[in-house]
Amino acid sequence: MTEPILFTVDRGLARITLNRPERLNAFDAETGRAWARITAEAVSRDDVGAVLIDAAGPSFCAGGDVRAMVEMDSGAAMTELAGVINDGILSLTASERPVAVAAQGTTVGGGLGILLAGDYAVVGEGSKLGSLYASMGLTPDLSVSAQLARAVGERRALQLVLSERTLSGAEAVEWGLAAEAVPDAEVGARAEAVARGWLAGAASAYGRAKRLVRDAALRSMPEQLAEEARSIGAAYGTADAQRLTRAFAARSSRA
User: Fold this and answer.
1) Which domain holds residue 137?
2) In the chain, which residues have pLDDT < 50?
3) Same domain flag for 210 and 132
């Protein structure tokens, strides 16, 4: 039986691959459980410095599997499944592992939440990204209401969730959903290069920076400044920081 999500670790990079291309990598119950389990493992392993989320086939993620949804016997079952998938999203967003996303093709519905769980998204120039919940009589889930407005602003978030509009890859970058739009065939390679770049530098520093930014909304200004001060002090004591700051200082002295 084909696994709905693949997981490998190679030289510090955990790769999580959505693997239901015949269903546009949409989530059913089995996929949701695998997602929660694999994301928790990825961010807890000592040999993982960065995470890459990608997908098999021509599309990234179409959110929930509608065929599986119609077989659910109650709204409570839907709520339970969303909660399981949310556990995986929280594993990623709460971790100190920077997360890159390679999102080619279609990313809609809850797929937006999976994309937003990453910290640096690369999309294809031919990509289409949108909400499309209301067209099925549903409301945003999988962190879309929690993260979309933070990424693109409230007014633009409302434009997406209150219409059937989809964004191109270039528009996704312009709006702030993605960091880069590249030729469709290059999405995976570019996202991996970003993640490998973190690993080649000081992945722990990127992870701490990610945490500072993601948690800023939870703190007052004085609390955030105090956390910044604590974090930079902790970072400065690491071997990576000592090596990289000395190298930077040496280059500056020669300039």
Assistant:
1) 5-200
2) none
3) no
